[in-house]
Amino acid sequence: GRFTNRLLLVAIGAMVLLSAVGFLDDYTKLRRKHNQGLSAKAKIAGQILVGLLMGAYLLYNPIAVSATYLASHDIPDWPAFAVGWEDAAACARWRSLREGRLYALPHETDWEHAARGPDARPFPWGHAVEAHVSNTNTSQAAGMRPARVGEFPLDESPYGVRGMGGNIQQWCLNEGARGGRRWTMIRGVSWPQSFAQSRASIRTAATRNYLNFTVGFRLVAPVRLG
C-alpha cells in the first residue's frame, strides 16, 4: 500500500525515540566516568536524532510538499536557497564567463551598506521593526515558507534591493576567524526566523561546506559610473 504521511510520521517518531534513548544512555555512561566528550556512537546517534527531527519538521512544512504544489507556484521567481558557498561561488564564475563581466558574492560590508542605504537605517525599510514587512516566521497566515522575490515589496532598501530583511539568508565573500577556525560570513535572516532579527546588522557564519534550506545567495557586479 501507499506509505502515507501518517505512517511516515509514526516511523520517524519511533526512530527518533530509539535514537534519543541510545544517545542519552551513552551520554549518561560517559558522564558517570567524568568523560567530557561523547563517543563516536553517541555522536552518530545525536546526528541521526537531529536529522529525523528535521525530517519530521519538513514533513508538515510547506517546503516539503508534492510536485503539484510546486507546479502551481511561481518557483522560478523564488530566490536561490539550499546552496552551499562553493556552489554559489561557482555560479558567480559561470555567469562571469558567460556574460564577459565580473560577478561575485558580496563582501558583508557591501551587503550591509546595500541594506542600510545612505542614511544607515537599522532596517532595510526604515527605522522601526515591522512584523509583516519581510518574510519571517509569522508573516504568512498559511505557515512559514520561502516567498517569491517580489512577494514582500516593502522589504526594500533605499537602493531598491529586496529581500534583505527576510526570506533567505545569504552567503558573503569574506571570512572571519574564531576558535582557531575559518568561518564564511552569512548575512540577513530567513523565513523560519523571528522578525525581531531582521536588522541589517545581523550576521552569522558557517563553514563553506554548510548546506541549509534557509541559506542561499545573491550576486553583485561592479559598474562604471560616468
- Alpha plus pi helix count: 5
Please state the CA-atom Rg, rounded to the nearest Å: 21 Å
Give the overall shape, derived from the CA principal axes.
globular
- The helix fraction, in percent, is 25-40%
The largest beta-sheet arranges its strands as: 3-2-1-4
| Arithmetic mean of pLDDT | 79
Q: Major beta sheet, specifics?
A: 4 strands, mixed
Low-confidence stretches: 1-8, 62-70
Terminal-residue CA separation: 67 Å
Structural class label:
alpha+beta
Kindly report the oligomeric state of this protein.
single chain
Query: How many β-strand stretches?
Result: 4
Strand content: 5-15%
Detail the topology: elements first, then pairings:
Elements: H1 5-32, H2 40-59, H3 67-71, H4 85-99, H5 108-116, E1 169-178, E2 181-187, E3 203-206, E4 215-216
Parallel strand pairs: 1-4
Antiparallel strand pairs: 1-2, 2-3
Structural account:
The protein is an alpha+beta fold and 226 residues long. The chain is 34% helix and 10% strand. The chain is built from five helices and four strands. Strands 3-2-1-4 form a four-stranded mixed β-sheet. A hairpin with a 2-residue loop joins strand 1 and strand 2 (181-187). Helix 1 runs antiparallel to helix 2. The longest helix is centred in the N-terminal third of the chain and has 28 residues, at 5-32. It is globular. Residues 1-8 and 62-70 have low confidence and may be disordered.
